[in-house]
Amino acid sequence: MTAYMDHKNLANETIDAKRRQEITDGVHRVLDTVAKATADAGREPGSAKLLAATKTRDVGEIMAAIDAGVRMIGENRPQEISAKAEGLIRHCADEGFDLGASVSPLKEGSNPEARTHIPFHLIGQLQSNKINKVLPYVDTIESVDSLETAEKIARRAVAHDITVGVLLEVNESGEESKSGCDPKHAIELAGQIGAIGGLRLEGLMTIGAHVDDEKRIREGFAHLRRTRDQILASGDAGTADCRELSMGMTHDMALAIAEGSTIVRVGTAIFGERAFI
């Protein structure tokens, strides 16, 4: 168990009015930023989606974000998914949403076509012994950075008779502290992953360079976009759905959107600074 989980009840479902308003304001500011960056880039409205990064946030905080307009969430750690999933699924069902891979029971007399699906992503690293913990809940695992990891996820997916969405994580910055495959191998690796049964290759993911040089940050994002385009152009089996570009966070989301991001992963700008790492 992660140490901070001894000090914060992540399954907590209650939230006071002040905290709810803080989160609501944060969501609205970020949605406005995403919309403006999308328009400034000359892109279609809605072509860049907001994923709320919910590391260390409890059920009540996450539901406040969903109530404010968030329509995609992402967790960093399988332990947190286990702690929060059932409460989130229940609250989402009460509000007419289906969360992640878990299809909630429909209330009597409800219209299934009126329900909204909220994708649930794992955006952090996944150890092989935690795969079964996340598969009942997440639609997509964004942190796949090797053929070995992809094959391990695929074996569990096939055993569960499901198909799991994956994004190939690419280390565009070249920083040793970051995970992700070498950009030189990304196209070949994407083709290999796309051919594996039980997986659906949905796109690519990266973390922007941790520098003040906007040009360097944008170069990494632009390279990921070109890599995605080459994968799609290859026509290789299993790569036709490789369209998503998950890139951009609180500090660099506008740059990422300018370079073609389709998913920005934002936590701090929505929820505020984390009390725990």
Describe the structure.
It is a single chain. The chain is an alpha/beta fold and 277 residues long. It has a single domain, classed as Alanine racemase (TIM Barrel, Alpha-Beta Barrel), CATH 3.20.20. It is 39% helix and 15% strand. The protein has nine helices and ten strands. The chain has helices at residues 17-40, 59-67, 78-94, 131-134, 147-159, 186-194, 214-234, 253-258, 268-271; strands spanning 49-53, 73-75, 97-99, 116-118, 120-122, 140-144, 164-169, 199-205, 244-246, 263-266. An eight-stranded parallel beta sheet has the order 9-8-7-6-5-2-1-10. Strands 3-4 form a two-stranded parallel ribbon.
Largest beta sheet: strand ordering: 9-8-7-6-5-2-1-10
SSE ordering: HEHEHEEEHEHEHEHEHEH
Total number of domains:
1
In CATH terms, what is the fold-level topology? TIM Barrel
CATH superfamily: Alanine racemase
**Total number of beta strands:** 10
Describe the biggest sheet?
A: 8 strands, parallel
Number of helices: 9
CATH architecture field: Alpha-Beta Barrel
* Global Rg: 18 Å
> Given the C-alpha coordinates, what overall shape results?
globular
CATH class placement: Alpha Beta
Question: What is shown here, in short?
Answer:
The chain has 277 residues and is of the alpha/beta class. It has nine helices and ten strands.
List keywords for this structure.
single chain, 277 residues, alpha/beta, TIM Barrel, eight-stranded parallel sheet, two-stranded parallel sheet, 10 strands, 15% strand
Map the helices and strands.
Elements: H1 17-40, E1 49-53, H2 59-67, E2 73-75, H3 78-94, E3 97-99, E4 116-118, E5 120-122, H4 131-134, E6 140-144, H5 147-159, E7 164-169, H6 186-194, E8 199-205, H7 214-234, E9 244-246, H8 253-258, E10 263-266, H9 268-271
Parallel strand pairs: 1-2, 1-10, 2-5, 3-4, 5-6, 6-7, 7-8, 8-9
Helix pairs in contact: 1-2, 6-7
